[in-house]
Design a protein that fits this description.
This protein is about 5% helix and about 45% strand. By secondary structure, the protein is mainly beta. The N and C termini lie far apart (about 45 Å). It catalyses: 5-dehydro-4-deoxy-D-glucuronate = 3-deoxy-D-glycero-2,5-hexodiulosonate.
Length: about 280
């Protein structure tokens, strides 16, 4: 079993102004997440947030401690959010099994020792997308299905952004220290996500794009509102968004994405909105 972790250091808004496409992709795009029989992690210096992917096929995969956290167990000083975007899978926490179907989530609080991922059917393996942030208190483990989520219906076909937001791991649904996660699903005929665009100056965010048909892509917009940048994203890739950056996207097809946040507070609507007409 392999746990592969790399580190991304924080990049400032002025530094990004000099970046060419390859540099933007190297610093903010997270590729090759979903690798068979491997746990792939990226440890970022934005609020010490970790994003990763787990694809158990021929064996169960254990989320062991990594050198970046200098702890005996991965969750000694962290909390964890898991969203399955593949086939039926199981997450076993200290001997207790939690089965996750596609688009179901699991919150795992600080202090749990053993986290093991497995697939029910190796021919249709689970694809677990995971986020983790530092935690100061232990909260109970909780599974959250789509029926348990807060659901927001936003946008319209007229503006190409009709979407359903499933707030899975958020304040009011799950008790957490700072981690928040959910899924946004674009409806057929809609391609724009998170428009009007916004920033979270008090926290960072990561977008993981999935349900994207073959040979289709999403153009993810980042940067400052008056000096935007873009990154083309394929299926099952993620973009890490710094606090100073907007985060929005437009696809060549409808798609879904998992959003995850950590930082100063747990208020979902704590954002600074920028109208499309104001972007440059």
């Amino acid at each position: 079993m392999t746990v592969n972790c790399t580190t991304r250091y924080a990049i400032g808004r002025n530094e990004v102004k000099t970046f060419v496409t390859e540099q933007l992709r190297d610093e903010f795009l997270c590729q090759d997440f979903m690798t068979q029989d491997q746990i792939t992690l990226i440890y970022t210096h934005y609020d010490r947030y970790i994003v990763g992917g787990v694809v158990p096929v021929d064996e169960a995969l254990s989320l062991t401690a990594i050198d970046e956290t200098k702890s005996e167990h991965f969750l000694d000083r962290r909390e964890l959010g898991v969203v399955n975007v593949g086939g039926l899978g199981t997450v076993t926490i200290d001997g207790t099994e939690y089965q996750l179907a596609a688009k179901e989530a699991l919150y795992v609080g600080q202090g749990n020792k053993e986290v093991v991922f497995s697939s029910v059917d190796k021919a249709n393996p689970a694809h677990f997308y995971i986020n983790s942030s530092p935690a100061h208190k232990a909260f109970p483990i909780k599974k959250v299905g789509l029926q348990d989520a807060n659901i927001l219906e936003l946008g319209s076909l007229e503006t190409s952004n009709q979407r359903r937001i499933h707030q899975l791991i958020v304040n009011g649904v799950v008790d957490t220290c700072q981690l928040q996660m959910g899924i946004t699903c674009l409806q057929p005929g809609s391609v724009w996500n998170t428009m009007p665009a916004h920033q979270h100056d008090r926290r960072m965010e990561a977008y993981f794009y999935f349900d994207l048909p073959e040979n289709q892509a999403v153009c993810h917009f980042m940067g400052e509102p008056q000096e935007t940048r873009h990154i083309w994203v394929a299926n099952e890739q993620a973009v890490v968004s710094p606090p100073w950056s907007i985060h929005s996207g437009c696809g060549t097809s409808n798609y879904s994405f998992v959003w995850g946040m950590a930082g100063e507070n747990l208020a979902y609507d704590d954002m600074d909105v920028h109208q499309a007409s104001d972007l440059r």
